[in-house]
Amino acid sequence: MKRKLVLEDGTVFIGEALGSEREISGEVVFNTSMTGYQEILSDPSYCDQIITLTYPLIGNYGVNRDDFETLNPSAGGLIVRESAAHPSNFRSAQSLDQWLKDKNIPAICGIDTRMLTRLIRNQGTLNGRICHEKADEKEVLEELQAFQPSKDKVKKVSTKNAYHAPGSGRRVVLMDYGAKHGIARNLIERGCDVFVLPFNATADDIRAFNPDGIMLSNGPGDPSDVAQASETIKELLGEIPIFGICLGHQLLCLAAGARSSKLKFGHRGGNHPVKDVRTGRVDITSQNHGYTIDRDSLMGTDLQLTHVNVNDGTVEGVAHHHYPAFSVQYHPEASPGPNDSNDLFDDFITLMDKQKTVIS
């Protein structure tokens, strides 16, 4: 069955139907990772977005039961050049096509993803719609021109109720703005007892758990859409050690007085080089974000620039001059991607232990 992708600039791609039959509008983005499509599709940071995977063959190792970053994916749709009809891997439980159908995620294959990626790179992120081949393009364009991405993405993907991810030792509150499973897993592996709280938990809600540290998770969308979270972080700065990742990084920066802005086409992939400006070390990192912290806005705050993106010089990490708080824009837990920066979790453990020593 034929299907088409219509972009807000009028560009139309004709391809083959994959996954769910429903139609979907959303922000069309691209990810340059060669593997890890299962983790990408189940990453809550992609909430409502239509993901273009630039690697030409997707689905060749199927979908397994272990590698999900959430059990309830919120990605809007998927675009691939070619989808493997017959996956081969000893862990495979089902094909990508069948999993997409089960999760009601529409997709399209057989289009020129290189052309689409170059279009997004040159024009910036575009809204688009995956629809049936016979859909009226004029009507679709009118819908796209009026389309506005939801400002409630974090609310959609965050847990509704606090829950316990049991470990041992240090008590860590994980603020769930769309947290990947890999974050809690890394904390538990390092001897942390993790309590996951919804995005709108208050400072008193957090204090009630008497945590040794606060982990600010990744999540979708514009950090300014969750201003309440920044205010909560601001209230806790200096009181409890904080480590932020991705959206959590941006919220920490906003709490300290910095500003954010939207990138032209975002950073999404598993091979982004990041330099630690303090040591000169360069890590290859996994990234997934469409917003960044304005570098100039760090001036006049108590934040020290610690990491920069080697490709475009954007802010990739900060540390507070006076308080036990730091954050990075990328994903040290990877999934998918390299583990170069996994030791940042160890730095968080050290920070918590140091703070306990100071208090005692």
Automatic annotation (TrEMBL):
- Stored Pfam families: CPSase_sm_chain, GATase
Annotated region described as CPSase, given as residue ranges: 1-170
Q: Where is the active site?
A: C246 (nucleophile), H331, E333
Q: Which GO terms describe its biological process?
A: 'de novo' pyrimidine nucleobase biosynthetic process; 'de novo' UMP biosynthetic process; glutamine metabolic process; L-arginine biosynthetic process
Per the record, the pathway is: Pyrimidine metabolism; UMP biosynthesis via de novo pathway; (S)-dihydroorotate from bicarbonate: step 1/3; Amino-acid biosynthesis; L-arginine biosynthesis; carbamoyl phosphate from bicarbonate: step 1/1
Report the InterPro entries cross-referenced here.
Answer: Anth_synth/Amidotransfase, CarbamoylP_synth_ssu, CarbamoylP_synth_ssu_N, CarbP_synth_ssu_N_sf, Class_I_gatase-like, CPSase_GATase1, GATASE
Query: Where along the chain is L-glutamine bound?
Result: S45, G219, G221, L247, Q250, N288, G290, Y291
Q: Which reaction does it catalyse?
A: hydrogencarbonate + L-glutamine + 2 ATP + H2O = carbamoyl phosphate + L-glutamate + 2 ADP + phosphate + 2 H(+); L-glutamine + H2O = L-glutamate + NH4(+)
Which GO MF terms are attached to this record? ATP binding; carbamoyl-phosphate synthase (glutamine-hydrolyzing) activity; glutaminase activity
Q: Which SMART domains has this protein been placed in?
A: CPSase_sm_chain (SM01097)
Q: Which UniProt keywords apply?
A: Amino-acid biosynthesis, Arginine biosynthesis, ATP-binding, Glutamine amidotransferase, Ligase, Nucleotide-binding, Pyrimidine biosynthesis
EC numbers on record = 6.3.5.5
All residue ranges annotated as the Carbamoyl-phosphate synthase small subunit N-terminal domain in the record: 1-131
State how it assembles. Composed of two chains; the small (or glutamine) chain promotes the hydrolysis of glutamine to ammonia, which is used by the large (or ammonia) chain to synthesize carbamoyl phosphate. Tetramer of heterodimers (alpha,beta)4.
Function, as annotated, reads:
Small subunit of the glutamine-dependent carbamoyl phosphate synthetase (CPSase). CPSase catalyzes the formation of carbamoyl phosphate from the ammonia moiety of glutamine, carbonate, and phosphate donated by ATP, constituting the first step of 2 biosynthetic pathways, one leading to arginine and/or urea and the other to pyrimidine nucleotides. The small subunit (glutamine amidotransferase) binds and cleaves glutamine to supply the large subunit with the substrate ammonia.
Q: Member of which family? A: Belongs to the CarA family.
Under PANTHER family, the record lists: CARBAMOYL-PHOSPHATE SYNTHASE SMALL CHAIN, MULTIFUNCTIONAL TRYPTOPHAN BIOSYNTHESIS PROTEIN-RELATED
> What protein name does the entry list?
Carbamoyl phosphate synthase small chain
Task: Give the source species.
Answer: Alteribacillus persepolensis
Write the gene name. Answer: carA
